[in-house]
């Protein structure tokens, strides 16, 4: 009897010990899973342009790193020459957050790239400039017929080109379209290989400053540019609080730049290797509001309609599938 009692006691002790150990293990596992649910790294894409001032300033000031260092989250920055290559990075799962123009963002959505616009990083009528080569005697859209006109195909500037031509009854087929990245547009003006171009800052002001071309127009009365802050939809859904904190950093940068435009120009000048006067000139053309203003939403809706009508996109894109205001609202940015 004593032996049976002893055996039962041993079994009970073993069961209790196993339960206790298993319970402790379960708790540690849950805590571990909770900790591991946060990303170890956030990859932010941007372009070396003045319309990307908010991320460039925040990066330079260390505000992203400061926001996430307590979480042991590393911030990685990836630079892209234009929007279309950034969309490719989103499609390949290599980006979490990135700043992209409206046309490539809409085309991405139409092509089932799983991105969501969570905010805006630059908007306005003067973000893109229409330039004519020095000595070309080009004065308006009608003078572009038969000319070599450069633009980054698929960018926001591409949409402006089509609307500029349409304003005088011309089509893209009436010009010699030259697909160039912004850095190559300046070189092509220098070598007299193009007659005109549409490009954003700082390239436009730099080209003008060197007298390689002169400005004949911008988006005024044609296109209100809306540059979108995109997030990988899976990243945003898995990390809504982190997305809100990222937006707060962008908003902090917006307020700082507004209060310190001269210091911002210093940062841009150093980061982009620009003359400060060019940086300041370009900065004055930008509206760096991170919010989805009524004008921004109206412009996006119009751009979607135009892209659908000219078959640039092969299916409709619902504006509410493209943008999501809840992250800004959740961050208290209204």
From TrEMBL:
Keyword Cell membrane: no
One Gene Ontology cellular component annotation held by this UniProt entry: periplasmic space
Recorded coiled-coil stretches: none
InterPro entries associated with the record: ABC_SsuA_sub-bd, Solute-binding_3/MltF_N, SsuA/THI5
Main location as per UniProt: periplasm
UniProt keyword annotations, A-Z: Signal, Transport
Record domain Solute-binding protein family 3/N-terminal: where: 41-260
Gene Ontology molecular function, alphabetical: ATPase-coupled transmembrane transporter activity
Pfam families noted in UniProt: NMT1
Protein name per Swiss-Prot or TrEMBL: Putative aliphatic sulfonates-binding protein
Species the sequence originates in: Clostridium acidisoli DSM 12555
